[in-house]
Amino acid sequence: MKYLVIFTLLAALFACSTARVVKTEKAPGVDFTTYKTFDFYELGASGDTTGNKFNTYTDMLRQAISRELEAKGYRRESTDPDLRVNIGIVVKEEAQTRETTIREAPRYMGQRRYSWKSEQVEVGRYKTGTATIDLVDSRKNMMVWEGVMEGIISKKQSSYESDVNKGISQLFEKFPD
Fold first, then answer.
1. 3-state secondary structure of 46
2. Which CATH architecture has domain 17-96+126-173?
3. pTM above the 0.85 mark?
4. What pLDDT digit, counting tens, does each position of 144-156 carry?
5. Cα separation of 101 and 150, whole Å?
6. Which of 38, 48, 56, 170 suits a disulfide with 83, CB 3.0-4.6 Å?
7. Range 123-126 contact pairs with CB under 8 angstroms and sequence separation of 24 or more
């Protein structure tokens, strides 16, 4: 039992520490060797995007994507790029709960025989984010590649930057050469 608890805690720690790649998809029949340049569309975001760090965090995301594309030989060009990068972000606030031991305690019995029993107690709140990165052929206006990643958004800027860099790196490992 002791080892099961330790394993579960370690699995939860590693699962939450960085973003995880949900999916990547390439359009059939696309030859990526014909593309040489890229630039970004305007950012589209929904959910809880009003935080004072939102712009800083989205800039980190763009920098990480630029770094990966440049490492693959693409060059950023604002006038007439071959590819446009579209970033969609969804941020949600979630509640962290824990199970109570109320099952062992007697139920409260009120008038008219109603009872109250709660097995879940909220112990904290955190934000999760999903980032969708689409690469669009500028001339055909056709999506040629999509990558989706999700994870818990760290409150610390240094942790967030590290998580984004790792997540984008993992996402672009699946990018066609």
1. strand
2. 2-Layer Sandwich (3.30)
3. no
4. 999 999 988 877 7
5. 32
6. 38
7. 123/96, 123/97, 123/98, 124/95, 124/96, 125/93, 125/94, 125/95, 125/96, 126/93, 126/94, 126/96, 126/152, 126/153
Measured torsion, CA atoms of residues 62, 148, 81, 59, in degrees rounded to the nearest 10: -10
In this prediction, residue 28 carries a pLDDT of 94
Do residues 138 and 85 make contact, with C-beta atoms less than 8 angstroms apart?
Answer: no
Contacts of 151 (CB under 8 A, 6+ apart): 16, 18, 19, 20, 128, 129, 163, 167
Burial of residue 163, with CB atoms counted within 10 A of its CB: 0-12 exposed, 13-18 middle, 19 or more buried = buried
